[in-house]
Automatic annotation (TrEMBL), chain A:
It comes from the Bacteria. This is Xanthine dehydrogenase family protein subunit M. The keyword Cytoplasm does not apply. Residues 1-221 form the FAD-binding PCMH-type domain. The keyword Transmembrane does not apply. GO terms for molecular function: FAD binding; oxidoreductase activity. SMART domains: CO_deh_flav_C. It comes from Mucilaginibacter agri. InterPro entries: CO_DH_flav_C, CO_DH_flav_C_dom_sf, Diverse_Substr_Oxidored, FAD-bd_PCMH, FAD-bd_PCMH-like_sf, FAD-bd_PCMH_sub1, FAD-bd_PCMH_sub2, Mopterin_DH_FAD-bd. Pfam families: CO_deh_flav_C, FAD_binding_5. Keywords: FAD, Flavoprotein.
UniProtKB/TrEMBL annotation, chain B:
It comes from the Bacteria. Residues 603-612 have a biased composition (Basic and acidic residues). One of its GO terms (molecular function) is oxidoreductase activity. Gene3D superfamilies: Aldehyde oxidase/xanthine dehydrogenase, a/b hammerhead, Aldehyde oxidase/xanthine dehydrogenase, molybdopterin binding domain. Residues 584-621 are annotated as: Disordered. Residues 584-599 have a biased composition (Polar residues). This is Molybdopterin-dependent oxidoreductase. Coiled coil: none annotated. Residues 19-133 form the Aldehyde oxidase/xanthine dehydrogenase a/b hammerhead domain. Keywords: Molybdenum, Oxidoreductase. InterPro entries: Ald_Oxase/Xan_DH_a/b, Ald_Oxase/Xan_DH_a/b_sf, Ald_Oxase/xanthine_DH-like, AldOxase/xan_DH_MoCoBD1, AldOxase/xan_DH_MoCoBD2, AldOxase/xan_DH_Mopterin-bd_sf. It comes from Mucilaginibacter agri. It holds the Pfam family MoCoBD_2.
């Protein structure tokens, strides 16, 4: 670890101001940041602790949407009664992630910003474009069982590891950020970036910009929603594949649908194609399968992760069947 | 007086451990301690051309950098027996030359005032290499396979009886399949760590080791200092599973650096470093051929294993070691061969040989039972070996058939549909599987010292160690019974190389080896007390016969009249003694060639001398053992639920019935078997160390990438014991249990998955991608 200066910000403005300089980083729960610093993957000169900011509220909106403070702990969010009844897929996604101890520390903003779990990214002895731009990608021809099949480029095939973000992608969340120039909002779909030729650029935040809230707009049919995660062990493990699904079925016809996939994409992967295929179709297994095929139509598998294409489809179909079965 | 042996008493050191008061190797507070951080190679094969330490030297807090250019020269280690010191990589003493033979090999050690300073400086060491093409990828090198020498403890690597090939040709039913297992890592909770401190010519070392005596012997040879000047402590160890059985470079580098910089030095590996620089289980490919008659009797068994080792030592995973003995068959052929790869050297890992060997063999047995349309239990009973047909000797005791029956009862075997893929529970498929478990019962020479104090408490000293298995606890029970004292009055001290030599913690031998020595030492002390009483005309036992007297409740008294006797402390007090002590060595080994006699004049020779008049030692050593082989057996059962669409596997229940002789403590024994079962679940379902296919360095080197089972994976586990003492192994009748719990487990799960799905996965671990 490199030595750094620690600043304990008292309010948003101080945090933004302090983090405005280069090589400065926020720290919230620290569950990702500290590991990366210990491994010399992140080497900030200045660390701005934001835990004293007043961003801990979960506010229900009059129209049944919700605003979630960036410092709300993953555990608090997952057990929130409003979230559990209105957006069960979000609660389930959070509870499927990490372990209770980690969720007690992990914040909403930090979860959004967590970095990939590609093993080569974590090992400074290997080439990695995301860690060291231009050094190459050890995963493409290496051990890539856990890597992505959607949204990859010839520079990087790392997954975005978050479960929470898969649910937020499906729910069309809006991210509120505050910077030196004021407050702006970013639609969830625009927040994370595809690797393309610049895998080290992962999101749309500018230096010093602070995530203050996440808003989930009202989505009544998301009360029937589900997050399904397939993994190598029962807990404390990232997804091989996952699916966040909400369905509005009336008289056997799908009126509205939301679909996002995890474990397969270089960013949390909402599939508008799959949603389109569902809307207006009858709620049957063959419809689900067609949607799943479309969701994975652009998949580009590598040596060890070809199974993810089929597994992701099955995960999605199962999640859709489960939601259909919810009464 | 109630005997304490067998009782499920709590761990005597449990409170210390859960309150953090138990001191592990890395936790000793040593004045003026400096911190060493290793720099490991980032290439897989080649030479170190130069090491630039300038920048690192200038960093704050840095005391110095130890490299091959400035470090002390070491002497070659000789031995290969872990108990007397086995260096894991005999051709790669650390920092002795510029060769690099695997990724993650020691290149330098940075020593600084704090760990953080040392780590920071270590990142600034500039190493330039001359890279060579490494041998990477197990399967790519089968053409280079060669026949190795002997395996662990002199195990034969090639065995044969009858003509397996000829019998296979004429067998009515045959199976011939290939099974593969990956590299596994021990991932003991405590990483390898050493603190070394020199005091003139005397060296004190705190080490995370499974053998304080082995480390003492090894340090003395390699560093070239007398044994008496080498003191090793390992009071508490956070698991080893074999990774701390051989000695690794950290144990040498700490004293080397301490000498060089004239400061006590600590080296504690990071988890990532443990993966590359402190052992692993080798990768295997096993071909199993079985031939049987239509009556279900085996006529031919072939077990052919290829495994890999490094370029710096030869370790053979003797996967076929149990195969000639486990079932009855007139024709058997077992082979092992090795290839060399540029990887760190493999070493023993919980049941080395049997764990992966029973996976392959017991899945093959399941495949054969299926072909024969026989119930897997009945098939095994039909081929039960009543004796070791290879060695042509009887088993000291064996209740395997009872294990099968009790396991079947516990798991609900009657509910099993022999047709795979037929039983459903909602979305899920249900399956049952079983396998035989087996592990040899090892016993080796051990010594101990017993002291009875006038305040009424007793103490045992033994140079073995408790690696987390419960040795402190069961040995307290053994000693308490011999002294006739309650367990609270007995203090067992281990983990100190200046104590009488005890067994190394490996091969499941500590309980069986050290137990009888401790018992004999305590009985020896008691015999002295009794003799004093008999000679003391103030004692109620004056002039009585020793054989008529027994101990109990802190007293000695007549066997047939407990009222005639007195308190132990009264005997000592009246005779003006503050203590009575005795030492004993039980020179018994289940591997005949391993009984050892100490050199004349050594402290151990004195113990041998004293043991000649110790009745317990004499009776134990005279027990006729040469006509017997010593093995534990058991039956493993698993019930699994498989999601056929998603490939996810849920183990619903495990039943494990073990025949391990006397159960010394029901709680620690159950705990050891459960640990083995969970180890086996990891082996079957998720653990796998992955190497980069191009440069051959380890990719999965932390506990987020190398998966072991977590609580949420663990099902109901029913552990039962047969509980019949082994009449020949020792007066205690206990065989070791640290390793048998993993054997057969992976096969039982794999067989259950087959029964659930009809899918036979012959490549561990069985992950969802292999089932969809
Ligand atoms: C062993 C392990 C297993 C895990 N398993 C899972 C899993 O299965 N599923 C899953 O989804 N996650 C998993 N996680 C990841 C975990 O969810 C994240 O580490 C956590 O959410 C990060 O939150 P934090 O508050 O600790 O962030 P920190 O570590 O404090 O920060 C992470 C990043 O976010 C930035 N940041 C934090 N807050 C803000 C803000 N308000 N505005 C702008 N930037 C900010 C920091 O600068 C930093 O770059 C696992 C983590 C570990 C260690
Ligand atoms: S996939 Fe991305 S993160 Fe992984 S090694 Fe390649 S560039 Fe780095």
């Amino acid at each position: 670890m490199e030595p750094f200066k620690l600043i304990r910000a008292q309010d948003n403005l101080q945090a933004i101001h302090s983090a405005g300089i280069k090589q400065s980083k926020f720290i919230a729960g620290g569950t990702n940041m500290l590991d990366l610093m210990k491994l010399n993957i992140e080497t900030p000169r200045q660390v701005v602790d934001i835990n004293k900011l007043s961003l801990y509220k979960i506010e229900e909106m009059p129209d049944e949407g919700v605003r979630i403070g960036a410092l709300v702990k993953n555990s608090d969010l997952s057990y929130n009664p409003f979230i559990k009844t209105h957006f069960p897929m979000l609660s389930e996604a959070l509870l499927s992630g990490a372990s209770p101890q980690l969720r007690n520390m992990a914040s909403t903003g930090g979860n959004l910003m967590q970095r990939t779990r590609c093993p080569y990214f974590y090992n400074t002895d290997f080439a990695c474009n995301k860690r060291l731009p231009g050094s190459g990608c050890a995963a493409i021809n290496g051990y890539n069982r856990m890597n992505a099949v959607l949204g990859t480029s010839d520079q990087c095939i790392a997954t975005h590891p978050s479960d929470m973000c898969v649910a937020l992608a499906a729910l069309g969340a809006i991210i509120y950020v505050q910077g030196a120039k004021g407050i702006r909002t970013i639609p969830f779909a625009d927040f994370h970036l595809l690797p393309a030729q610049t895998p080290h650029l992962e999101h749309n935040l500018r230096q010093g910009e602070l995530i203050t809230h996440i808003e989930i707009p009202a989505l009544p049919f998301a009360a029937k929603s589900h997050y399904l995660k397939v993994r190598d062990r029962a807990s404390y493990e990232f997804a091989l594949t996952s699916a966040a699904v909400a369905l509005d079925v009336q008289n056997g016809i799908i009126r509205q649908a939301r679909i996002a996939l995890g474990g397969v994409g270089t960013k949390p992967w909402r599939s508008l194609d799959a949603e389109k295929a569902l809307i207006g179709a009858s709620a049957t297994e063959s419809t689900y399968k067609r949607a799943a095929d479309l969701a994975l139509a652009t998949a580009n598998p590598y040596k060890d992760n070809a199974f993810k294409v089929e597994l992701a489809k099955r995960t999605l179909v199962r999640a859709l069947k489960t939601v259909e079965g919810l009464s | 007086m109630n005997e304490s042996l067998g009782k499920p008493i709590d761990r005597v050191e449990g409170r210390l451990k859960v309150t953090g008061a138990a001191t592990y190797a890395a936790e000793y507070q040593i004045k003026n301690l400096a911190y060493g951080v290793p720099v490991l190679s980032t290439i897989t094969k080649g030479r170190v051309k130069s090491i630039d330490v300038q920048q690192a030297q200038k960093m704050p807090g840095v005391i110095g950098v130890m490299t091959s250019e400035n470090c002390m020269m070491l002497h070659s280690p000789a031995g290969s027996d872990p108990g007397s010191g086995k260096f894991a990589e005999k051709d790669l003493l650390p920092l002795q030359n510029d060769r690099v033979l695997y990724g993650g090999q020691y290149i330098a050690v940075v020593v600084a005032e704090t760990t953080e300073q040392a780590e920071r400086a270590a990142a600034l060491i500039g190493v330039t290499y001359e890279e060579q093409k490494p041998a990477v990828g197990f399967e790519n090198h089968f053409a280079t396979a060669y026949q190795p020498g002997s395996g662990l403890g002199g195990a034969k690597t090639q065995e044969k009886r009858g003509d397996a090939d000829a019998a296979m040709k004429t067998a009515a039913v045959t199976t011939d399949e290939t099974y593969t297992t990956p590299v596994y890592s021990h991932t003991a909770m405590e990483p390898h760590a050493t603190i070394a401190e020199w005091n003139g010519e005397k060296l004190t070392v705190y080490d995370a080791t499974q053998s304080v005596m082995g480390v003492q012997a090894l340090l003395s040879t390699i560093l070239g200092i007398p044994k008496e000047n080498t003191q090793v402590y390992a009071l508490y160890i956070g698991g080893g599973f074999g990774s701390k059985g051989f000695t690794w470079a950290n144990t040498l580098l700490a004293p080397m650096a301490a000498k060089q910089f004239n400061r006590p030095v600590k080296i504690e590996l990071k988890r990532q470093q443990v993966f590359s620089a402190a052992g692993r289980r080798t990768q295997t490919q096993q071909k199993i051929g079985l031939g049987a008659g239509t009556d279900g009797k085996l006529v031919s068994v072939k077990h052919d294993t290829i495994s890999e080792t490094s370029f710096v030592d030869e370790f053979v995973e003797t996967a076929g070691v149990a195969t000639p003995m486990i079932y009855s068959s007139p024709n058997v052929e077992v082979k092992h061969s090795l290839v060399r790869l540029n990887r760190g050297t493999p070493c023993p890992m919980r049941a080395p040989g049997e764990s992966v060997g029973t996976y392959a063999l017991e899945v093959a047995m399941d495949e054969m039972a299926r072909k024969l349309k026989m119930d897997p239990i009945q098939f095994r009973i039909a081929n039960h070996s009543d004796m070791d047909e290879q060695k042509k000797k009887q088993f000291s005791s064996k209740y395997l058939k009872e294990c099968y029956l009790r396991g079947a009862e516990s798991i609900g075997w009657n509910d099993r549909n022999p047709e795979p893929g037929q039983t459903k529970q909602g979305n899920l498929l249900v399956g049952y599987g079983m396998a035989t478990a087996t592990y040899p019962a090892n016993r080796s020479a051990s010594s101990a010292k017993a002291t009875l104090y006038v305040d009424g408490h007793a103490e045992i000293l033994c140079g073995t160690q408790d690696i987390g298995t419960g040795t402190y606890t069961v040995m307290t029970q053994v000693a308490a019974d011999a002294f006739g004292l309650p367990v609270e009055k007995v203090k067992v001290k281990l983990g100190n190389s200046s104590y009488p030599k005890g067994a190394q913690s490996g091969g499941s031998q500590v309980s069986a080896s050290v137990g009888p020595a401790i018992r004999a030492a305590a009985l020896g002390a008691m015999s002295k007390v009794i003799k004093i009483a008999i000679a003391d005309h103030k004692s109620p036992l004056y002039d009585k016969k020793e054989e008529d007297i027994m101990a109990g409740n802190g007293r000695i008294h007549l066997k047939d009249n407990a009222n005639v006797g007195e308190a132990l402390v009264d005997v000592l007090r009246r005779n003006g003694m503050d203590k009575v002590e005795a030492q004993a060595k039980t020179n018994v080994s289940t591997r005949a060639q391993q009984s050892t006699t100490a050199p004349d004049g050594s402290p151990e020779a004195k113990i041998e001398e004293e043991s000649k008049t110790n009745a317990a030692v004499q009776a134990d050593e005279k027990t006729e053992r040469k006509d017997y082989v010593f093995h534990s057996f058991g039956a493993q059962f698993a019930k699994v639920l498989v999601d056929p669409d998603l490939g996810t596997i849920r183990v619903e229940k495990i039943a494990s019935i073990m025949d391990i002789g006397t159960v010394m403590n029901l709680k620690t024994a159950t705990n050891q078997i459960m640990g083995g079962i969970i180890f086996g679940m990891g082996m079957a379902l998720m653990e796998e160390t992955k190497y980069d296919p191009i440069n051959g360095r380890i990719v999965t080197r932390d506990m987020a990438q190398y998966l072991v089972p977590v609580n949420a994976d663990i099902p109901e586990i029913d552990v039962q014991f047969i509980g019949k003492p082994d009449p020949y192994i020792s007066p205690i009748g206990a065989r070791g249990i640290g390793e048998i719990g993993i054997t057969g487990m992976a096969a039982a799960i794999a067989n259950a998955i087959y029964n659930a799905t009809g899918r036979r996965v012959r490549d561990l671990p069985i992950t969802p991608d292999k089932l969809i």
